[in-house]
Amino acid sequence: MRELRRILHVDDDEDIRAIGALALELVGQFELLQCASGKQAIKEAQAFRPDLLLLDYMMPEMDGNETLCELRKLPNLSGVPVVFMTARVNEELSNSLCRNGALDVIAKPFDPIVLADRLRELWRTFNDLESGNVM
Amino acid sequence: MAKLFGYELPFKLKYATNTVPFRTLILALGILTLGFGAIEFVSVPTSVSQIAVALVGLSALMLIYSQRRTLRKKEDRIATIEHESRALTSAAERHLQVCEIDAQGRIVSVNQNFVDRFKYSSSDLVGKPSSIIYSGGTSNGAYCKLQSCMSEKTPWTGESEDVTANGRLVCSHCTVTPIFDRGQCVVGAIVVRTNKPDELNPERTQFLTNLFDHLHDEIYVYDTESLGMVYANLSALKASCWSSDHLGQKSILDADPHMHEHLFRAHVAPLFSGDKDIVVTVVERGTRFGEISTRLTAGDNGETLFVSVLRDATERKKIERAKTDAVSVVSHEMRTPLTSIKGSLRLLQSGILGNFDKNAKQALDIAVRNTEQLLLLVDDILDLEKIQAGKTTMEKVPVNLVQLIDEAVEMNRGYADELRVNFQFTTLLTEAAANVSAARFTQVLANLLSNAAKFTPEGDTVQVNLDAEDGFWKISVRDEGPGIPEGAHHKVFENFAQLPSPDGQKRKGTGLGLAIAQRIVHAHDGEIDFVSKCGEGTTFYVKLPADANLHQELAPTTEDGLTISQDSCRLNPDDAKQPEI
Q: Among B134, B126, B124, B77, which Cα is nearest to B106's?
């Protein structure tokens, strides 16, 4: 199983991006590309070739779902797993996003100390599902 | 021979004088009183004394005749009075509501009209105080008049506001006449009433009609059986595009094409079962909202009618929605900066960004704790708003409560450890199926467990039990805390309830946990309550309806899924009993 290394993190809030950077780069030791909007992510994702997308759901202009739809249209990004983050805790929304292929929906505020571990766990689950190793 | 009343006269009357006037007078009197047998008088002369006796007899006969005529006249008069009296009684029976009461004001008898109008049976009334038919009982003005009328021995006529057996208020013209015995003592009274229908007061009727027509609210009055319309005010007529001329041909179902009779009947069923006095629903009319309140009332003839009042609720709904949205937005907007604050603090606290001295670390811990508290408050406010707005998902599925409680205990054990208290879950049951939203019920248990942990002294144990009781599952959470002062019991489930503690210590909490728990339990048709005594701890318990049929529908559980926590124990599983449902 390939290791999780490159994460594309999209969030319109600068401070949360800063926390995310510490949580993922410093604590998680990932390669990280952070974007402030869906549009920026669509421009830069292709070149970065992420292993996993970490998208804020509530964003102005393009929300997380719309951003994902556009990213999926890009070559090599159609099968990249996605994890959403949202401050609007909503069971219905979480279920809906998971039904549409999201690995998980992480509620804000998230714990920056355990975020990296959580993403690695989800990555393993994703790979198990892909390879059919799930009991 | 002349006879009088069958007696032969002892002598033949002969006149003694030959004067013509005297002879003529005697002859006339004789013929008048004795018949033509007296003609013999004229031919036989007799003595003066005999003539005198004859005259006395004649006078007596004339007196008897006169008495007989007077008597006959009196008999005729009595017969006439008897007929008049019978006619009067018959008319009173037909027209008046008559009630006879004794000197103590108890009802002695009532006529059929009275029974018909007041909806009591005669046996229900006889022997009862007459005050029961007066609106307001003994404080009713007409009843007070009745009392003074009997004490002052004078009749009274006036108006009386009365109440029928089914609670309907009626207005009567009323006359009270005391009944006296031979000694002129009052032994009772006759109270007669006549209806005081509105048509007798057309001005008042017109006033009320105008009043109802000027109301912005729509008023519909209709029959409970046929749902046929009886009355609609102007607003209702306009909204339904009806003409008052054809109202009698309309049904309430015609007022809203989306209304189905079976749904309507189900909606109003609690009015008939006595569970509710009024049922309320909100309907959408295009872009507007209307709140309909429906209750039962009695018609003029005692028939049962529905009264529905539709009030425009558009503005209120807008305000409610704006309030909910505002709370939701504010809460959401607070979560975003809190994410940065909590994230930064957690990174600092972890030591990844460097170490702090003792004082800095203490300040950091305070910041972390209070951030957590603020987040809990935001979450609770959001939860409460969502539950109150009906936006919370309550997808109920058959759940094994034994497993659910066990998992909730495990989930909250970390919090108990922080406070250095223990959780112990005990039950004789292996399976307890209930129809619940697992997520929401876990929230209820979490609130009860964290609440109990907060109030339990260090080293003590919070006891959690699950039992079967009268067709319900009863979950109890008992703490060893100081108890809730009796004066604060009514506040326990209120929003932002911060209860005083007998030990004077203040426990941290949002004050919303139990309010949220109560709303969730009620949404599951369950009950939540507590027993508490100062110095002896508090036990909160939740009762949920048990359904034997659900046992077969329970999702299969694995060995792991039913693992009992280290501190939990199940006593003699072989003895486990199921509730008697």
A: B126
Banded model confidence at residue A11, pLDDT cuts 50, 70, 90:
very high
Q: Is residue B248 part of a domain?
A: yes
Cα B424 to Cα B400: distance, rounded to the nearest angstrom: 18
The DSSP 8-state label assigned to residue B106 in this structure reads B
Provide the shortest C-alpha distance from residue B340 to chain A (in Å): 5
**A19–chain B nearest CA distance, Å:** 6
Q: Which domain holds residue B36?
A: 3-70
Mean pLDDT, 10 residues at a time, chain B of 581 residues = 50 49 64 57 54 75 87 90 86 86 91 87 89 86 87 88 82 89 88 73 76 90 92 91 88 85 86 85 83 87 86 86 77 83 92 89 87 83 78 80 93 90 93 88 92 90 92 92 85 76 65 88 89 89 82 49 36 39 33
Helix (H) or strand (E) holding A18: helix A14-21
In this predicted structure, what is the pLDDT of residue A105?
Answer: 93
CATH number of the domain encompassing residue A89? 3.40.50.2300
Residues B377 and B499 in one domain: no
Which residues, in sequence order, are bridge partners of residue B473? B468, B544
Residue B415 belongs to some domain of the structure: yes
Q: How far apart are the first and last CA of chain A?
A: 17
B580 belongs to a structural domain: no
Contacts of B332 in chain A (CB under 8 A): 58, 87-88
The answer to whether residue A1 sits within a structural domain is: no
Q: Are B184 and B167 in contact (CB under 8 A)?
A: no
B171 vs B177: CA distance, rounded Å: 19
Across the interface, whether the CB atoms of B339 and A89 are under 8 A apart is answered no
Interface of chain A toward chain B, CB-CB under 8 angstroms: 13, 15-16, 18-19, 22-23, 26-27, 58, 87-89, 91-92, 108-113
Short-list B305, B343, B141, CA closest to B220: B305
**Cβ–Cβ of A92/B393 closer than 8 Å?**
yes
Q: Say how far apart CA A31 and CA A4 lie, in whole Å.
A: 9
Residues of B with CB under 8 A from a CB of A: 328, 332, 335-344, 346-347, 350, 352-353, 375, 379, 382, 393, 439
Whole-angstrom distance, CA of residue B59 vs CA of residue B57 = 5
Q: Which of A16, A22, A29, A108 to mutate to test the interface with B (most CBs of B within 10 A)?
A: A108
Q: Which of B339, B344, B353 sits opposite A108 (nearest CB)?
A: B339
- Token pair for residue B34? 């004795």
pLDDT at B16: 44
Q: Do B335 and A109 touch (CB under 8 A)?
A: yes
- Model ipTM value: 0.82
- Radius of gyration of chain A measured on its C-alpha atoms: 14
Domain count of the fold of chain A: 1
Asked if B340's CB is within 8 angstroms of A16's CB, the reply is: yes
Per residue in A85-94, pLDDT (tens digit) is 988 767 778 8
Q: Do A16 and B336 count as a contact with CB atoms less than 8 A apart?
A: yes
Of A88, A89, A109, the CB nearest to B343: A109
Dist. CA B461–CA B101, nearest whole Å: 70
Q: Are B449 and B462 in contact (CB under 8 A)?
A: yes
Task: Mark yes or no for CB contact B340/A18 under 8 Å.
Answer: yes
In this complex, how many residue pairs, one in chain A and one in chain B, have their CB atoms less than 8 Å apart? 61
DSSP state of A114: H
% residues pLDDT > 70 (chain A): 97
Which amino acid makes up residue B112?
Q
The reply to whether B276 and B418 lie within a common domain is: no
- State the Cα angle at A31 between A25 and A37, rounded to 5°: 90
Q: Which helix (H) or strand (E) holds A123?
A: helix A112-131
